[in-house]
Amino acid sequence: MKQSRAYKAQHRGSVNNQVDARNLLQRPGDIALVRRKALRAVVMLCPCGCGDVQVINLDLRVGPAWTFYQNRAGISLYPSVWRESGCESHFVVWNDRIIWFDDDWWYEELDSDGLRDRILRMVSKDSFVHFKDLAEELKEVPWSVLRTCRKLVRERLLVEGDKELREHFRSFADSVENNNG
Is residue 93 within 8 Å of 77, Cβ to Cβ? Predict the structure, then answer.
């Protein structure tokens, strides 16, 4: 029987292998870390409630990998998790929360340590910069930077590019310009 969606990621522990990690999972959204000298994977009970176990690679040596973040706000993964088979769930793990792409989650009124002002100091009106590049330079979780950049767009302090420049931002210019360049 399918359980309801989880909105919280619950860290259940760190172990040496995937079998032990699977044994720690009890409820949708539970996460166990596989660590052998370094982080290797996140093993997660699918938060949609379908019962599937997902293994999310963190090791660049074995192929495409997610980036793992852990800070006082919790665990985050970048990019989003998008299951292309089975339940086809698409969600973000951000600060111990599971945020579904079909929910309206970009408009929360949070500010991480003056992130808004730090972003405004970094962007110029002359060129677009991708939110992940901003996040890396600011040492922040990319989801926090993207959410804050989009809030700054609504305040008309930043401009977001379109088409191939979607998710790229620059300072708002007073003159009317094409936002692709």
Answer: yes
Residue with the two structure tokens 């110029």: 124
**Domain boundaries 115-171, CATH class:** mainly alpha
Query: How many CB atoms sit inside 10 A of residue 27's CB?
Result: 13
pTM (whole model) above 0.85: no
Q: b/e for 133-158, b at 16 or more Cβ within 10 A?
A: ebbeebebbbbbbbbbbbbbeeeebb
Q: How far is CA 178 from the centre of its chain?
A: 29
Kindly report, residue by residue over 108-121, the tens digit of the pLDDT: 545 556 899 999 99
Q: Are 39 and 127 in contact (CB under 8 A)?
A: no
CA distances for 85 relative to 47, 80, 82, 103, angstroms? 15, 15, 9, 21
The amino acid at residue 114 is G
